[in-house]
Amino acid sequence: MERIACFILLVTYFVVQSNGLTEANYYTSPMNKIYYIEPQNKYNWFGSLTECTRMNMSIITVDSAEKTKDLNDVINTNFKDVEKPLLYIGGSDMADNGKYVWHSTGNEFVYTNWAEYEPNNFEDDEHCVHIGLYNDGTWNDVKCSLKLGFICEVNKNEPQ
Ligand SMILES: [Ca+2]
Ligand SMILES: [Ca+2]
């Protein structure tokens, strides 16, 4: 029986590994939310969406100051002594430049946390939002094809 359990554990481990997902990337926040943070610069914004969906999660919506604080707490605690990772969040103005929308809710931005002089829509080609460039967790718009890390959260529509 123990052998079977061991085997199942191993298989699970390899399945998780082959998905490219890492258990260690899950974090529980002070607000008791579960975030998945991929710190490596491996995914463009659309790839990030796909990865979150594959985990039955959503790319994170940061629509309040409380959520910003919660997320900053997780990042500052867990990436304390390393360079802050560059992480996509779920905002984009791809459909209509200048009109930013949260992917998981479809809602237009009301609360924002842009860094100074952002969003600058550099070269008329920045339509996706990320954090990590500035230490205070403020936002920057970048080209959506840029490969960064990302943050997912448990789907909003699911009971938590
Ligand atoms: Ca833009
Ligand atoms: Ca920018």
Automatic annotation (TrEMBL):
<dbReference type="Pfam" id="PF00059">
    <property type="entry name" value="Lectin_C"/>
</dbReference>
<feature type="signal peptide">
    <location>
        <begin position="1"/>
        <end position="20"/>
    </location>
</feature>
<dbReference type="InterPro" id="IPR001304">
    <property type="entry name" value="C-type_lectin-like"/>
</dbReference>
<keyword id="KW-1015">Disulfide bond</keyword>
<dbReference type="InterPro" id="IPR018378">
    <property type="entry name" value="C-type_lectin_CS"/>
</dbReference>
<dbReference type="InterPro" id="IPR050111">
    <property type="entry name" value="C-type_lectin/snaclec_domain"/>
</dbReference>
<feature type="domain" description="C-type lectin">
    <location>
        <begin position="35"/>
        <end position="153"/>
    </location>
</feature>
<dbReference type="InterPro" id="IPR016186">
    <property type="entry name" value="C-type_lectin-like/link_sf"/>
</dbReference>
<keyword id="KW-0732">Signal</keyword>
<protein>
    <recommendedName>
        <fullName>C-type lectin domain-containing protein</fullName>
    </recommendedName>
</protein>
<dbReference type="InterPro" id="IPR016187">
    <property type="entry name" value="CTDL_fold"/>
</dbReference>
